[in-house]
Structure formats: C-alpha cells, structure tokens
Write a structure and sequence with these properties.
Helix content is 4%, strand content 51%. The protein has 250 residues and is mostly beta strands. The longest helix has 5 residues. Belongs to the OLFML3 family.
Length: 250
C-alpha cells in the first residue's frame, strides 16, 4: 500500500490507461462534474501545486458517480439523462464517438455504501466490465462484459455477492472481487468473489483485509498492466500492489 496524497473531494477516482505507454494520470474529482484533470505522470500529481499545472478536459455532458474508465485512448464515463448511458469519449479528438443506454431496467445503486454509483466500469486482462444492480434482484450485484468498440453487452451474470455493506469492487482475470465495509467506516475487506469462468468458487477465495486507513473507498480501479489498484479513500489517493496467483492455485 502506498498513500500518494490528499486531493479534492471525499469521493472521486484516479486512474491510468492500461493500454497506453503514457504515464498520464486522469482524475475525476467528485461524483458529479464535467471536468477531468490530466497530469503528465504520478510525480506531477503528487506536487503541492499540482492542480494549477494540470491539463483539463471539459466533457460535453457531466458524469455521475465514480465508475468511469480510461482505456485504449478513450474515456468511458457514466451519464444520467433519464436513463443511464455509457459515453465513449476520444481523448485524441476530444469528442464523443459513441454512446449507449445501459440495457438494465430499474437500476439501483450497485454498492450499499455508495448511493452515487449505479454503474461501475472496470478493465482487466480480458477487457471491459460493468458492475451494476437492478430492482429485480435488489439484494445482489450483477456483472456485464462490454465490447469496448461498440459498447454492446456481450454477456450478463447475476452474482451471489450482496449489495449490503459493499463499498466498491473490481475485476481481475474475469473474477469479480467485492469490497465491504461498515456504515461507520472500519477496515475494508474482500468478502465475496465471483469468477465468470466458474474455475474459482467464492468460498475457495481467501478473505482479504485492506490496511486500516481513513474512511471508505469511493473507487478502486485495477490496472492490468501494472497489476495494482488505484483507490480513492476519503480524499486520499492510494495504490495497492496486487500479488497474483493462478486460479488453479487458489
């Protein structure tokens, strides 16, 4: 675990593009805004005067929540305009290249401890995922695989992972890891795992505790290139380095 700095609001996200050779850091401050901060590399982000020197990307529409993603030169973010939309924004041309209404009815907040998140996008070694929840199966979290080019849903799964007391989640090698806490923030822990391939049962995965920190995670973005998680904890930006094992070894 490495604490980088304290920046911005209590909720937000910071991330990198796992498919790019660039070291740029993208920062979404807050749960509703239309401006993304861009820093050349981590070092510049950690400077005291970082915000004044950061580039800014003004988005055509504001985002909602902290479930956004930078992937392959595009910014994928969630817009709420009656329904929930996934917006695909080109970082090269600074224009929207595609958008799609997320095909789930009666959506509800995906994490019980984060009422602002209805869709949480993430990337792993296998592509792009969407973590969400609906009124139909209100007790548990659902997972979908997205085509990054067309934004089409390739497949959807109902998971056994409960929404109650969930604060965040991420996907690694096709397995969903859900992080839980308490309403009075305590020590976060991975308490439920769902592997889409079925090769790793949730009960076989060890319960993992994160070090005691400040509050609760508003976002946790896994970077498959670096094998580490960029987390936002009550306004603190934290990196968790992951030690990976083969699923057959779990």
């Amino acid at each position: 675990m490495k604490i980088l700095k304290r920046f911005g609001s209590t909720a937000g996200l910071w991330t990198k593009d796992p498919l790019s050779n660039s070291e740029k850091i993208y920062v979404f401050d807050g749960t509703s805004n239309d401006t993304v901060y861009v820093f050349p590399r981590t070092r510049e982000f950690t400077l005291f005067s970082a915000t004044r020197k950061a580039a800014r990307i003004k988005l055509p529409y504001p985002w909602v929540g902290t479930g956004h993603l930078v992937y392959g030169g595009y910014l994928y973010y969630i817009r709420r305009h009656g329904t929930f939309q996934v917006i695909k924004f080109s970082l090269t041309n600074k224009t929207i290249v595609d958008s799609s209404v997320f095909p789930a009815e009666e959506q509800i907040p995906v994490f019980g401890l984060a009422s602002y998140n209805y869709i949480d996008l993430g990337a792993d070694e296998e592509g792009i995922w969407a973590i969400y929840a609906t009124q139909e199966n209100e007790k548990n979290i659902a997972l979908a695989k997205l085509d990054p080019t067309s934004l089409d849903i390739e497949q959807m799964w109902d998971t056994p992972c409960p929404r109650e007391n969930a604060e965040s989640a991420f996907v690694i090698c096709g397995a969903l890891y859900v992080v839980y806490n308490t309403r009075l923030p305590s020590r976060s822990r991975i308490q439920c795992t769902f592997d889409v391939s079925g090769s790793m049962a949730s009960e076989d995965a060890a319960q993992v505790y994160f070090p005691k920190r400040y509050g609760s995670h508003s976002s946790m973005k896994y970077n498959p290139k670096e094998r580490q998680i960029y987390a936002w904890d009550d306004g603190y930006q934290i990196i968790y380095r992951m030690e990976m094992k083969k699923k057959s070894d779990v």
